[in-house]
Design brief:
The chain is α+β, with helices and mostly antiparallel strands. It contains eight helices and 19 strands. The protein has a seven-stranded antiparallel β-sheet with strand order 11-19-18-17-16-13-12, sandwiched between helices. The chain has a four-stranded antiparallel β-sheet with strand order 4-3-2-5, with no helix packed on it. A three-stranded antiparallel β-sheet has the order 1-10-9, with no helix packed on it. Strand 17 and strand 18 form a beta hairpin. The longest helix is centred in the last third of the chain and has 28 residues. The model has no long low-confidence stretch (mean pLDDT 95).
Length: 385
Amino acid sequence: MGNFQNSMSHKDLKWDYSDPVNGQSLPAPFFYSPDIFEQEKINIFMNCWHFVGHSNEFKEPGSYVVQDVFEQSVVITKEKDGNIYAWHNVCRHRGNRLMNERRGKVNGMLRCPYHSWCYSLNGDLRAAPRTEHLDSFSKKDHSLRTVRLEIFAGWVFITLDDNALPISEMMVGAELEMRNYLPDMDNVELVEETDVIVNANWKVIQENSIEGYHFDLSGPVHKDLAALIDFKGYRLTAYNNYWTYIGPPNNNVTHAYGLPLDGATWQTDSFFNIGLWPNTTFYSFPYTDMVGVFIMIPLAPEKSLLRFSYYAPKGRPVPAVTKAAIDWMNTQLGPEDIMLNESNQKGLHSIGFGSGRYLIDDRLPNESEHLVFNFHKLCYKAIRE
């Protein structure tokens, strides 16, 4: 019966979200159905804004970053004129991919490794061997095709949708919220990036990160995190296309991530998180001098790439407590969450589940799952309405 259920078409599956407190949660097939995943791919990820990196990563002409969106690939480059551009990462000759490394630096040209067509960093075709023998061939007709790019609060984003609203209009108020908690944001540089494959739907990973219900119930590392903040003051707030979850500091804390706080420096003592629709989260752990970026990149209905990027202020050593926090995230908190993600994904296939209930209670604002409901509704409306 389970195999039959999983093989059914879910193209038109409905969900009644009119009563989040007493109604049912998003039905399980929304987390594993190939039909629904394909609809999310088309209606969410092919027209949303995708995080690339910080503008400081493009320090010199020729610096580039490659960002993949399913089968699509985009190369973002820094030109000599000081501007950052985004191009479809494909040669206009036979469709070969131009750049295969995630990051790098080139000497003024993007060169196709197949037939050596070369493009300047402003996208113009500069060299195409032996095309001088072709009739009516113009280099101007074979420039790289552009991709929309915007810089928001110092961070670089791209979208494959030419009609997408500007990110600043979609996220009104988000930049101010970020700058209130991340004052070093304009002065950061990338210190580490880690990619992890997780056998879970991207929404399973997202919903885990936007509720405090499991903090003191699921595992020892989450209890350690809750102890660093005033957990009763943890607040989760939904806006139109973004959400925040912020924990004020526990002023009695003397140690964090296994190290003493005496003499340490940090940009915020709060646990600050802001999620931008659909899958990018900026955050800072308590008592650290860093900006973390956490992205859930969908690969398949039940497979995601988790990208953890860590940025610290330029020009000075990364403090020991911050280094310890990064290691703690990579080796303790992250793995504990991933274990929950993968266990949750397996359980969603059970014929004994189907759907559940949200814990939404104004009397428990630090543990309420209202952000989970809000996120599910955004996803559902994107593919159904």
